Amino acid sequence: MKIKNLCLNTGITGCALAVILLITLTGCAAPVGSSGAGGGDSVFAAQDDYIYYPQYECYYSASRHQYAYREGDQWVSRPEMRGVPTAVLRTSPSVPMSFHDSPAQHHETVAKQYPKNWTPSSSQPDQSRK
Question: How confident is the model at residue 22 (pLDDT cuts 50, 70, 90)?
């Protein structure tokens, strides 16, 4: 059933629920970086706003409430990172990202710029040499 027909048959409430369901399911159908939702040339309902956790090579999108990370050779997107408690992850060093598409598209560059042992102070020049 098309959304247009649903809107005509069920009114504004049915139409709103259909749109919400469509937006909700967009990020849940496929691994991040695949040809499905969340990767490649996919169209998003809202731009992602990633925070990167270098120690875990993990990204968090506040707009999606999802963590994106590699599991083996696949990118996955989940509400929690497998094997790392959220409280531990959120207290580790992090850096906001400026891209608004799949982390898989940027990870190679990001991981070089922010290695696993990166801390916010390591990105500042050494002031003691002046």
Answer: very low
Q: Are 92 and 85 in contact, with CB atoms under 8 Å apart?
A: no
| Exposed/middle/buried for residue 44 (C-beta within 10 Å: 0-12, 13-18, 19+) | middle
Burial class of residue 40 in the structure, from the number of CB atoms within 10 Å of its CB (0-12 exposed, 13-18 middle, 19+ buried): middle
| pLDDT tens string 25-38 | 444 434 444 434 44
Interatomic CA distance for residues 13 and 112, integer angstroms:
48
CA distance 2 to 115: 47
6 alpha-carbon distance from chain centroid = 31
